[in-house]
Amino acid sequence: MIGGVSESVKMSFGFILGEIFDLYEKIKDLPEKEILYGSSDQYGSFFQRLNSLVMLDPGDNAVQELLNNRELEPIFISIYRFRNLYTVRLETEHANEILAGKSPWKVLEGFPFYGNYLKLVRTEYEGLGLKQGDRILFLGSGPLPLTLIVFLKQHGVKSTGIEQDPVRANLSKEVLKKLEVYGDISILNGNHFSLSKEDLINPDSGTGAIMIAAQAEPKKEILNHLLKVIPVGCRISYRIYEKGLMKLLNRDFLPDFPEAFKEQRIQPEPPAYNTVVFLEKKK
Questions:
Q1: Which of 104, 138, 158 is the last residue of a domain?
Q2: Is residue 65 located within the same domain as residue 165?
Q3: Does 27 share its domain with 155?
Q4: What is the pLDDT of residues 221-241, one digit of tens each?
Q5: Secondary structure (H, E, C), the chain
């Protein structure tokens, strides 16, 4: 277990590989439904161990050696899958707690990563040059659209979330109604192909920017489609991991962007973990 190990041992290559292999053996055969809905309390400990592991930074050379090892690729895919699914589980459980509670805002702010969202959303709000009353589109809003809720509560930015899973989309709508913000935040069941050129060039749409969730995939396909439908000057942002072992979580990482995009990156500041990438369509 990571918690009881000294910092010097944690940074050793052998220890890191041992943790990766051990976690992989525990999660590799878990069905999707079991991760999302299973009753075992072990999955939470696996998630915590994984989060502790990826927050280590053994140095760029060590991380790159892991990334370049093709034999480890299936292991990283399995770990990435587990983390994404368990994150959906956490959001779903918290969404249901909000619906069941008498103080929904208090329950919302008790989400384990709420502080991370406050910092991350402020970075995106400032980087996209938004102002109160603007509206954004968010691809991959999930069962608990925290990004959109924080944008509205902290900065007065309205939004439309697009979620491809109909169950998660409907759950998020119920949460927004419970918080009494449905209307300022709306949810559509769909994906990036739901966005057309007519939707985005119409000035009545009021779209100030498009955001792509960290878990929305495949990003290359998404960006290629957006490049076709967005007007010149339209701003896009999305989140990646660039620090230490968190790079292992970028299964759909884009090292090079299409030439039609102008790129800017802002590195994370604690408690946020994500680098935010800002793109703008050039002429």
A1: 104
A2: no
A3: no
A4: 898 888 888 888 889 998 888
A5: CHHHCCHHHHCCHHHHHHHHHHHHHHHCCCCHHHHHHCCCCHHHHHHHHHHHHHCCCCCHHHHHHHHHCHHHHHHHHHHHHHHHHHHHHHHHHHHHHHHHCCCHHHHHHCCCCHHHHHHHHHHHHHHCCCCCCCEEEEECCCCCCHHHHHHHHHHCCEEEEEECCHHHHHHHHHHHHHCCCECCEEEEECCHHHCCHHHHHCHHHCEEEEEECCCCCCHHHHHHHHHHHCCCCCEEEEEECCCHHHHHHCCCCCCCCCCCEEEEEECCCCCCCCEEEEEEECC
The DSSP symbol for 111 reads S
Q: Name the residue range of residue 154's domain.
A: 121-281
Domain match, 266 and 145 both: yes
Rounded Cα distance between 91 and 111, Å, is: 8
**What's the whole-number mean pLDDT along residues 54-71?**
87
Model confidence over 145-155: pLDDT tens digits?
Answer: 999 999 999 99
- What pLDDT digit, counting tens, does each position of 106-125 carry? 999 999 999 999 999 999 99
- Please state the pTM of the whole predicted model: 0.89
What is the domain-level CATH number for residue 275? Answer: 3.40.50.150
Q: Residue 8: its pLDDT value, please?
A: 52
CB 250 within 8 A of CB 67: no
Q: What's the CA gap between 22 and 50, in Å, rounded?
A: 11
Indicate the number of domains in the chain. 2
Per-residue pLDDT for 14 more than 90? no
